Amino acid sequence: MMRALKCDGCYKLRLDEAKKEGLKIQLTGVPTFIINNKQKIVGAQSVTVFTDLLDKITKVQG
Description:
alpha+beta, 2 helices, 13% strand
């Protein structure tokens, strides 16, 4: 039999901080990958989405 862990708000501060950070970066889904603090990939994506973005960044930074 499992017993529920009672912590009476022990994670509230950390959850509030995470929520503020999510709002700050306009987080709309999970997972979210932020690359070079500029590009976002949101949600479950194929490898092609990642490689296309990384190729584009590489060409621009050339």
